[in-house]
Amino acid sequence: MTLTDIVFSNVNITLTILVIILVVYWLVTMISGIDFDLDVDIDMDIDVDADIDLDLDTGIEGGNIDFHEVANTEVNQEDVVGKRKKPLKWWQVLLIYFNFVGLPFMFTFTCWIFIWWMTTTISTTLTHSFNNTFGFILMLGGFFPSLILTKIFTTPFKGFFRNLNQDGDKPAELIGRKGICLSNISEKKLGSAEVKADGNILNINIKSLNGENIKFRAPILVIKQSTDKTFFYVQEYREQDVHLNF
Description:
The protein is α+β, with helices and mostly antiparallel strands. About 40% of the residues lie in helices and about 15% in strands. The protein is built from nine helices and five strands. It has a five-stranded mixed β-barrel. A hairpin with a 6-residue loop joins strand 4 and strand 5. The longest helix is centred in the middle third of the chain and has 22 residues, at about 105-125. It starts with a helix and ends in a 10-residue tail after the last strand.
């Protein structure tokens, strides 16, 4: 029995395919940084009282999936908890506890799937159960243990991601820069924008400064950075605004 036979066995094939998809995803993210301009709003309604929309606006109007923006999308614990009158739902507590909140979601999700796949593959190999019912029991039984291992593995990365500029280098001064909005945003929706600074094109997370609607491909002006340094407040750029060079 070869390794290929094991990882593509009846029990392991689902997680193996997920791992392959995630590997391809991260390779595309790191190597090409392709923008497909696809505008899909994924609203994650987290608060039971105040509907906090955490939108991953990954473009539809021109056809753009910004892999970089999705990979670095972080749901902050402050946004989840906020000033609430009712307790968190059970799935919200799980997201926070297992580090899907506080770290880039795709980073934690990838770690979880990979650890789950590893534990399932190893356990079914040792018990020779990768093609029988007992193997499926081991796979399903590894769901929560893999989450616990993911929490242990990802916790040290919280400080790293908190202090890391999303482009991995010394942050450029973006306040006062002009750019292009890559999403339809309004109110508290999170979107993305393309800004040129120091000769480089940067993709940044943005929110509308006053909650006003900013359309896809509209010119924007960066006003200030959020207190947690995870996004920038912007407003639509108009000719009557103060002229600042790119």
